[in-house]
Amino acid sequence: xxxxxxxxxxxxxxxxxxxxxxxxxxxxxxxxxxxxxxxxxxxxxxxxxxxxxxxxxxxxxxxxxxxxxxxxxxxxxxxxxxxxxxxxxxxxxxxxxxxxxxxxxxxxxxxxxxxxxxxxxxxxxxxxxxxxxxxxxxxxxxxxxxxxxxxxxxxxxxxxxxxxxxxxxxxxxxxxxxxxxxxxxxxxxxxxxxxxxxxxxxxxxxxxxxxxxxxxxxxxxxxxxxxxxxxxxxxxxxxxxxxxxxxxxxxxxxxxxxxxxxxxxxxxxxxxxxxxxxxxxxxxxxxxxxxxxxxxxxxxxxxxxxxxxxxxxxxxxxxxxxxxxxxxxxxxxxxxxxxxxxxxxxxxxxxxxxxxxxxxxxxxxxxxxxxxxxxxxxxxxxxxxxxxxxxxxxxxxxxxxxxxxxxxxxxxxxxxxxxxxxxxxxxxxxxxxxxxxxxxxxxxxxxxxxxxxxxxxxxxxxxxxxxxxxxxxxxxxxxxxxxxxxxxxxxxxxxxxxxxxxxxxxxxxxxxxxxxxxxxxxxxxxxxxxxxxxxxxxxxxxxxxxxxxxxxxxxxxxxxxxxxxxxxxxxxxxxxxxxxxxxxxxxxxxxxxxxxxxxxxxxxxxxxxxxxxxxxx
Length: 617
Description:
By secondary structure, this protein is of the alpha+beta class. Helix content is 35%, strand content 22%. The strands form six sheets. The protein has an eight-stranded mixed sheet with strand order 5-4-3-6-2-1-7-8. A five-stranded mixed sheet has the order 9-10-13-11-12. It starts with 9 loop residues before the first helix and ends with a helix. Keywords: DNA damage, DNA repair, Endonuclease, Hydrolase, Nuclease. GO terms for molecular function: endonuclease activity. This is DNA mismatch repair protein MutL.
């Protein structure tokens, strides 16, 4: 019987390794840009076409490679970063495993051009699916240019698993931001489909943050710094009043390497305890400098996970550093002398009435023009109202949003569910009584027993059905904002917003794009009361971003789910009148699924009379 175990060919072994190292175009971007960093480049240009599926090119002015190194870098486990096992515990470079270039070359068509300062001619190496196609001497400036074409062209199944272009671009932009934040002393350029979208000069960290995320971030940054014998912390945290409903603006770097660490993120969030509303996330960019011997970065091929030898101490130091920063900066509101205080009054500090902050500015000749401007704005709001009052009253019944529509059968309201007949039992206003418990739950008594209802989840179901109806019918009503509000979102979230903009219009949002980069919220869905447009849109973006990697699938459901979750927060603990409780019960049992919220959580539970008797006995 012949032997069964055999050594895999290098090409297959490289493709297997590529499954971990090269997960999507963003993985290639990360590896190539980190190689440019290790080559001591002071300028790095990233060029992308077709969301990285067509072309990914990274050009740098680093040290370049010799003719031999240019060919050797495509071999598995070929690296210039380490020589012996002990070097793993003193790594200061971005790369060290020697897997990236071999993995990329096994699943794409790669062309490398490079030259060192001391060489008259540079080298060109062309590889396709791990097979060397060409190697020759060429003219080339000092540095390296690597072009990756047709990623996964030889593995159709992997290519088919790639998401839509906006999703892949968002991941690429994330990686670009990570590298650009970690190295503000390096000049970067980002070109998408032959259009330069980012030009970042070498600068300080604070300026780099503003250049990446927008001028609005300047006033929210609070410097954070702590120096101990074990670890040093530097960076910025966002002031609590600027926290968003979306994740994605939380960055940890250890020795200039971007990492993901839920434990350290918890340390930061605990420092913000009682300073943030529920579901809000602060902005932070924190750099930890620590002796490499205290960490292990050889945990995963992506190198975004790190183990610390004393994680609890790191947690305590990070938490203390952020708390100290907040205690210093949060007591003094930032002042913007270019802003009209009558239109942009900040949150009042604890114990200080808002009127006491603005009283000294409300008088004097300097505000005459501002007051007249406000009066004119209010007058414009009512222009034409008298002439159209009769037409408005005639149309009101048809355009007024009905959150709790009355479904009647004869003189009685039928509460039988469309989705679940509940043993063919009919509930109506004459055979049930309802009370509220702790302003969070409803207890519904009827002839056969008792039904307990979660108030917030019930509203989520009702609102979800309403929003889904608007999306399907494309007829959501909108309420105009007297003063449009600028929407502050990062570039990655803008890509999501562009893709779902039409659906938001159907819900009742009115958005206006200015200068190709700024969005203004001019209207929000009718019937949402005092809801803030910024928070509503942040909630939608968060839901879509983290629960639907491909927006082409179930997009309406995700958007309606995000809207219902956000809009139902106000009912989490709210006293309801008898009329409101009855309306809630009626609308719930007329909904598409009275048993389950859009999030899959149980809304109600029925206790039959015999169950109650058994519990008491």
